[in-house]
Amino acid sequence: MMLTEERVMKRPQEITSVKALLESQGLSLDDDVEHTLGIFRGDELIGTGSVSGKVIKCVAVAKKFSGEGISAKIVTSLLHYLSEKGVHHVFIFSKPDSAEQFRSLGFREVARSEPYAALLETGPHGVEEYKKELRKGFVEGKNVCGIVVNCNPFTLGHLHLIRTAANECDIVHVFVVREDLSLFPYAVRIKLIREGVSGIPNVRVHEGGDYIISRATFPRYFTRKTDLAAAQAALDVEVFARHIAPALGIKSRYVGEEPYCEVTNAYNEAMKKVLPAHGIKLVVVPRLKVGNEAVSASRVRQLIREGKLDEAEKLLPAHAFAFLKSPEARPILERIKTSDSRH
Amino acid sequence: MVEGKNFGMELRKAGCAGTLESSDIMITIHPGNGEGIEIVLESPAKQQFGKAINSAITESLMAIGVHSALVEAKDRGALDCTIKARTETAALRAAEMDDDEVRAKK
């Protein structure tokens, strides 16, 4: 048995050595990690792994120590760290060729996107339980479609997309990104959506949970970094096509055309590639325009940032504009004005 | 081995013990829903030893007065004595008790 020591990596030179080890395996250290572990033999860093939310990632073991059970030590330590924090539904985000090793440690594979990414999970409430919940909302229909939205905030553009789908399909399932990493909190986003579609009888609104654009399936969505976005987008779409669409009999997915954001555009590109392979049709709906301007939530946030909320009125459904003018919205508007986040 | 047929142990939160290293087992015990002990086992030897592992876990829980729990077990080829020790420790952590409190209660 090899004697090793565990250390939490914090200081700049420690982080530098972690990055070097990851890079030697073709990996990188994501900037959203909150806890990074180092496994040492003497002074030599021989293994590392990190945690972001409920996701274990950036796991690497020095080549000459592979097969010595170092990754079991890393995952054990990170699981205990998460357990202390009360997190028991845990994901591992890895390369597909490491997935087998994590399966042998008791993780179940959710989906993979060759050759970039695989997602595994552990805990009593996994994707099968999520699908069971979803199936309660199953509605029979010849032409059932799905839409994934963040609605940060809900605009006339989202309403247009949902209405278009509702006119063309029997049933529209709308999934709302659950992760609370956007400037508009989840509770506000889903409330404005529910109110906005309440008059359309064939629309069902669902919580996106851990499996639709989450820190597990698509971390780059929230950091707006484009380098790995394509790889992660493909994984997220795999999860949708393999688990979510079959649970509800979804045959097509509607998306808004994306003229501005590179990350969202990468997501749309991934859907073009992945969905047809699973027999799901992708329908791209052109952006709604008001005057010459395409309606977008990022434009609304920009107007808020510039203190021109009244100019956003023409981009928003009446109830959403009324909300933004209400006292309840004040802290959110303040946050948008002072935050660096473009998201 | 803690014997405690005379008292029930209340699980307050999830408790975790053990490692994923070879010959060990990692056990996480969640408070149950009052419908007995449910075990979700992952093991390379599940076909051959699944039943034996499950009964080792159930017996150690019963022995310390836990009658309702959801148990996640990730086995890496642990012996019976290891399974029992890990299960007991995980349950004590889930009940927010230490060994002394258990002995005092007996």
What does this structure look like?
The complex is a heterodimer of chains A (343) and B (106). With 343 residues, chain A is of the alpha/beta class. Chain A folds into two domains: 5-124, Aminopeptidase (3-Layer(aba) Sandwich); 128-338, HUPs (Rossmann fold), CATH 3.40.50.620. Helices cover 39% and strands 22% of the residues of chain A. Chain A has twelve helices and 14 strands. In chain A, strand 9 (171-176), helix 6 and strand 10 form a beta-alpha-beta unit. In chain A, helix 4 packs across helix 8 (229-248) and helix 8 (229-248) crosses helix 9 (262-277). The longest helix of chain A is centred in the last third of the chain and has 20 residues, at 229-248. Chain A is globular. Chain A starts with a strand and ends in a 5-residue tail after the last helix. The mean pLDDT of chain A is 93. Chain B is α+β, with helices and mostly antiparallel strands and 106 residues long. Chain B has a single domain (15-105), classed as Ribosomal Protein S5, domain 2 (2-Layer Sandwich), CATH 3.30.230. Chain B is built from three helices and four strands. A four-stranded mixed sheet of chain B has the order 1-2-4-3. In chain B, strand 1 (15-18) and strand 2 (25-31) form a beta hairpin. In chain B, helix 1 (46-63) crosses helix 2 (80-94). The chains are: A alpha/beta (343), B alpha+beta (106). At the A-B interface, helix 2 of A face strand 2 and strand 4 of B.
Fill in the keyword field for this structure.
heterodimer; A: about 350 residues; alpha/beta; Aminopeptidase; Rossmann fold; seven-stranded mixed sheet; five-stranded parallel sheet; 14 strands; about 40% helix; globular; B: about 110 residues; alpha+beta; Ribosomal Protein S5, domain 2; four-stranded mixed sheet; disordered N terminus
